[in-house]
Design goal:
135 residues; mainly alpha; 7 helices; globular
Length: 135
């Protein structure tokens, strides 16, 4: 049995699956990962929160969990391994999310070349936390 993952009650404010997250705050490669989950890839892995590298706490992305739920093989495997609970998977999400990884990817990529003011502020906050910075 694996160690449980943290699971926030609401997707973080910079979650690429949230409809209210400004487009263009993440690198294109991060957005490109999202549609892969529509097809049960990659390698049946749980999608972790982008905030995880700042907190140091292994955390499932609540947006991903809410969008894909038990439809995702990765979620069913995580529950069977004790990484997630049924209650975490079934907990309602109180923010609007994109219906798929492809939809979230398209929305996020739309702002990559020219992030708006709201996106630039979000990028500055993330960078100050050390999120999104490659070593």
């Amino acid at each position: 049995m694996s160690a449980p993952l943290a699971c926030p009650p609401t997707p973080c404010g910079s979650c690429p699956l949230r409809r209210d997250t400004p487009p263009g705050i993440w690198h294109p490669s991060e957005y490109a990962k999202l549609p892969l989950y529509d097809d049960q890839a990659p390698e049946f892995a749980v999608f972790h929160c982008h905030q995880e590298n700042a907190t140091g706490v292994p955390t499932v992305c609540k947006g991903w969990l809410a969008v894909f739920g038990f439809e995702a093989i990765a979620v069913r495997l995580a529950v069977s391994r004790g990484e997630l609970t049924v209650e975490q998977v079934e907990a309602p999400c109180k923010v609007e999310l994109y219906a798929s990884g492809a939809e979230a990817c398209a929305a996020g990529l739309a702002g990559v070349n020219q992030p708006g003011e709201k996106a630039q502020r979000a990028i500055a906050r993330l960078t100050a936390k050390g999120i999104g910075i490659e070593s």
